[in-house]
Amino acid sequence: MVMLVVVALVLALTGCTLRQDGEPASPRPVGPSPSTLATGGVTPTSGTTPPRADRRPAGLPGMPPLLDPQDVYAATRPGQLSPAVRGFPARVYVPNSASDTVDVIDQRTFTRIRRLRVGRQPQHVTPSWDLRTLWVGNNRGDSLTAIDPASGRGGRTVRVDDPYNLYFTPDGRRAIVVAEALGRLDFRDPHTMRLRHRLRVPCRGVDHLDFSADGRRLLASCEFSGHLLWVDVARERVVGVLRLARGAMPQDVKLAPDGGVYYVADLALGGVWVIHATRPRILGFVHTGLGAHGLYPSRDARYLYVSNRNEGSISLLSFATRKVVRTWQLPGGGSPDMGGVSADGRALWLAGRYHAQVYAIDTRTGRLLARIPVGAGPHGLCVYPQPGRYSLGHTGVFR
User: Fold this and answer.
1) What CATH number has the domain bearing residue 234?
2) 351-375: per-residue pLDDT in tens?
3) What's the burial of 266, exposed, middle or buried (CB within 10 Å: 0-12/13-18/19+)?
4) Quick check: helix, strand or coil at residue 145?
5) Which pTM value belongs to this model?
6) Is residue 2 domain-resident?
């Protein structure tokens, strides 16, 4: 009885509840204060300090160990191409959601060299865990189309339900199809895409995610209900839920280099949430710009590029200070959305969602290198190849 009273008191102070499996769930909503939104700084949640990354050596069984426990991106430095991709030509693969096509762009000449017909409403182009295949998620076509990155040409099409997004577990044993409209994470065989397990999620609009440094948990965002979900990767079950501020619309998710926090873009509130990596806890909010959407680490893991879709800008957030250090404005405006960084780290490529364009941006100066016309509704483009030993999915999250 005494222990129950103590536990109840702790939960009341932290604002958390426990799920039936003993994990934390739904803490009370915490939102960005007006002063935070005005200054672009981080307002820590009361009584918290920045966490240190989990240093436990035991990761998800079968996951390749990190090259550097202090830096999850240590294997993605310029030029660190896997032997599996070294012969691939440098291309950008652009899914045009409103045209049912994928445009292939030569990174060197900034020209479109091919247009592939795919399924209905392609959303993202995703590298497979073994780096050898690119998968196009045809959302409304209920299918995945394979692209051979050696030739840049399309291959087989596999039937799957509602593939808004696609990820791979760090051990390479499962693909995770994010079935946004169906409210599910579907765990599948990473090669055949045969269904293994459907996980229904307690939120609306699940769409993006990233994995913890040890690979044992993932954090998923739910755009339409303003929730974040913690999922046990091995057990394939939800173990924690966090509700963000009223009106929040969480989007892309990226782990910090030291593995201590996640950053979550918020389209509606115009900034990035800072979330404790191991517990459902908000540590702060950083204002970046209207329509914050995509998140991409720089090749030296010093900055997080944040695409602000509704104001045509890209913010550089310092991982060291958790503050915006500069903002690049696209000349003539635009709608920068999803994309990635070139293998040498010198160019940031982003889809212009509402302008039927792709932008190439110099990461040293912020200068616009090219504005390339593509099909209608370009979305989750993939820059390929990129450094890394294996892919965790989306448009290219590598370890």
Assistant:
1) 2.130.10.10
2) 999 999 999 999 999 999 999 999 9
3) buried
4) strand
5) 0.88
6) no
